[in-house]
Amino acid sequence: MKFIERLRLAWMAQQSLLCVGLDPDPAKLPRHLAGAKHPIFAFGRAIVDATADLVCAFKPQIAYYAAARAEDQLEMTIAHIRRHHPTIPVILDAKRGDVGSTAQMYAQEAFERYQADAVTVNPYLGFDSLAPFLEYADKGVIVLCRTSNPGARDLQDLAIGGRTLYQLVAEKAVREWNANANVLLVVGATYPQELGEIRAIVGDMPILVPGVGAQGGDVAAVLANGATADGTGLVISSSRAVLYAGSGGDYAQAARAAALKLRDEINASRKVR
Amino acid sequence: MKFIERLRLAWMAQQSLLCVGLDPDPAKLPRHLAGAKHPIFAFGRAIVDATADLVCAFKPQIAYYAAARAEDQLEMTIAHIRRHHPTIPVILDAKRGDVGSTAQMYAQEAFERYQADAVTVNPYLGFDSLAPFLEYADKGVIVLCRTSNPGARDLQDLAIGGRTLYQLVAEKAVREWNANANVLLVVGATYPQELGEIRAIVGDMPILVPGVGAQGGDVAAVLANGATADGTGLVISSSRAVLYAGSGGDYAQAARAAALKLRDEINASRKVR
């Protein structure tokens, strides 16, 4: 099944547009996990199991595992999701981008080694840097468009013949890069107006929206500007606000409570037009 | 010592602008290494030891190690260079780019876990995505500007108020991002004219130039357009043309011969103005 179909099924079956991002910062893990053999995996597994019925996707961020020399625990985390929550797609947040021969290796890393269902990629190197990912027709390729950070404006907002660079990336994504119908975009929740502009360009293409929660994005504005006519089209990702909702022995329950609140807040803002 | 000083010392002491890129594709390794416990490390070590007196830097490409589940062999390779060839800087080619909190983790991966002297980064997310790298003042931060691949033109050549996006990245690199004097740029050898434009913008800032060899970049044109007045300023990287010059038991000698030829070809084109 193609990634976008899997995602649509998850939206429907779970009645949720929420994605929980797994950014396991070793400095923030609950203290009682310190003695565990695989503390990052133990943390991720507990978060996953506590929130799986509330989400449409999980999004592990590879940098946190790589900094901690814990690629094995990333493998274990994704394998756990695939075995115990097989209907929930896994987005590997890696933001890869390189020339073709190297991009091929990164695609292998994401889709074969880690068995991710989708991966985030950076468009700065152009089409041939995306092609090795796009050729995995059943996998999702989620292209950075307008990111959630303040510096996003440095390049992405530059004006090119009356349009911005991020609008042009959205146009290329929908018109030139989507032959396998497996492209999605990343647009930060912190920029709802830009999200609306991009939605107008890309039709029903799903959009991954990080930046609610710790980064301050407004849920109602995200839904109003980014949802498709059927009230879906968005994968709204929260990491820190869910992961670190609690820090004691009840951290998983605290994460569940935070995820439940956010899912409900999102659903309350969904309007099927 | 700051990275750029280390690089200048290597240019002088080695009388070389050549960088050997370590892109160890498991499918191309010499067959007799197949039984080794750490074949990718054994290959990289042999290449490093055979070429260390000919180069100003080594540039391992992390994607090849990650695809092969061989981060440990990347650690071993860099540790080997640092121990046995301590004057040769190590550039980790990773092309990272993410929001600040995640970029912090990627900086930790490159500089603390792998102990690289410099890392390549992608500018699409803007200044705050680069800042966590730039704060390591003694490390080099090598920003993608005009890459060597055909798709580079898709975004990097777009016209913004009479300039191109890559020119604007070069301007930001030299004027806004270089407070710690640790920024370098990546410009592909396959685009010597663009290299000349960028050199005019950035003064003496060192430029990493991949794309000679297998990608077809012309050495004389690279030197004519990219060198600084003292005949340096460039880190000219070749990977496949050196690594896979031979495939039998003499692969390291074949790599040395290819590196020697390329170093001499570069030196023959250097003109101190």
Q: What does this entry look like structurally?
A:
The structure is a homodimer of 273-residue chains. Chain A has 273 residues and is an alpha/beta fold. Chain A has one domain: TIM Barrel. Helices cover 46% and strands 16% of the residues of chain A. Chain A contains twelve helices and ten strands. Chain A has helices spanning 3-14, 39-51, 62-67, 71-84, 100-113, 127-134, 152-156, 165-175, 192-202, 219-226, 240-243, 251-269, and strands at residues 18-22, 57-60, 91-96, 118-121, 140-146, 159-160, 163-164, 183-187, 207-210, 234-238. In chain A, the strands form two sheets. Chain A has an eight-stranded parallel beta sheet with strand order 2-1-10-9-8-5-4-3, sandwiched between helices. A two-stranded antiparallel sheet of chain A has the order 6-7. In chain A, helix 9 (192-202) links the parallel strand 8 (183-187) and strand 9 (207-210). The longest helix of chain A is centred in the last third of the chain and has 19 residues, at 251-269. Chain A is globular. The mean pLDDT of chain A is 96. Chains A and B meet through helix 3, helix 5, helix 6, helix 7 and strand 6 of A and helix 3, helix 5, helix 6, helix 7 and strand 6 of B.
Could you list some keywords that capture this structure?
homodimer, 273 residues, alpha/beta, TIM Barrel, eight-stranded parallel beta sheet, two-stranded antiparallel sheet, 12 helices, 10 strands, globular
Quick overview of this protein structure:
Two copies of one chain form a homodimer. An eight-stranded parallel beta sheet of chain A has the order 2-1-10-9-8-5-4-3, with helices on both faces.
